[in-house]
Amino acid sequence: MTEQLKEDLPAVIAEMEKTVAEFPENVIAQHHLGLVYMKSGRIEEAIGCLEKAIELDPQSAESMINLGAIYFGQGELRKAEELNQQAIGVNPKAAQAYANLGLIAQQNNDLDTAIERYEKALAIDATLSTVWMNLTSVLTMKGEDDRALAAAHKGLELDGDSPLAHNNLAVALYFSERYSEARKHMEKARELGYSVDPNFVASLEQKLA
């Protein structure tokens, strides 16, 4: 969020609150106000708006996904999973819902399910760079080095300025014993502000010594 948007946020909220007060049955207005409340950290109000949007439109998959994201952030994984599953029931092509379910499975250390869900999301929308990055991490944890490297390259291809994408590729290259290339991407991740694991740095430098 830019500084300008931060400065304008109170005015945006005031205007949207006015719209919702005038048209309380407007699903889009409730949904968008919920999102703006999310951005401003007014979480309980965001939950209220998104729940109202779902009540008004039980087919509002996007509201379900965003409400699930709030619960995920609060550590309410069961609620988050239920909402994303509900969104898929409404819209089987909801790629972000599958991606979120992958995060939940990963959080629960169910790596096989996480991979399955990430791959489902990518089968629907292969441009989701963050999902490629998450998939890279899980495949690395599983020791599936070739698949992790392919996913890491795809994540970086889609978002070349992502410090996480560079770090993920550095790790994948390390496990593929391509240490010089790994260092290049590690250094780029640092340059972009990523806090690289010191243990990884030490191990990589040892390999290059």
The overall pLDDT average reads 95
Helix content: over 70%
| Silhouette | elongated
CATH level 4 superfamily of the domain at 126-209: Tetratricopeptide repeat domain
* SS elements, strand count: 0
Helix-strand category: mainly alpha
Broad CATH class of the domain at 126-209 = Mainly Alpha
Q: How much of the polypeptide forms β-strand, as a percent range?
A: under 5%
CATH architecture of the domain at 126-209: Alpha Horseshoe
Largest sheet: none
Unreliable parts? 1-5
The N- and C-terminal alpha carbons lie at a distance of 42 Å
* CATH fold title of the domain at 126-209: Serine Threonine Protein Phosphatase 5, Tetratricopeptide repeat
**What's the Cα radius of gyration?**
20 Å
Order of helices and strands: HHHHHHHHHHHH
Pfam families: TPR_10, TPR_11, TPR_8
Protein name: Tetratricopeptide repeat-containing protein
InterPro entries: TPR-like_helical_dom_sf, TPR_rpt, Ycf3
Keywords: Repeat, TPR repeat
Write up this protein:
One of its GO terms (biological process) is receptor-mediated virion attachment to host cell. It comes from Desulfofustis glycolicus DSM 9705. Residues 1-5 have low confidence and may be disordered. The chain has a domain at 126-209: Serine Threonine Protein Phosphatase 5, Tetratricopeptide repeat, CATH 1.25.40. It is built from twelve helices and no strands. The relative contact order is 0.06. Helix content is 80%, strand content 0%. It has 209 residues and is an all-alpha fold. Helix 4 (61-73) packs antiparallel against helix 5 and helix 7 runs antiparallel to helix 8 (129-142). The longest helix has 20 residues, at 3-22. It is elongated and about 70 Å long.
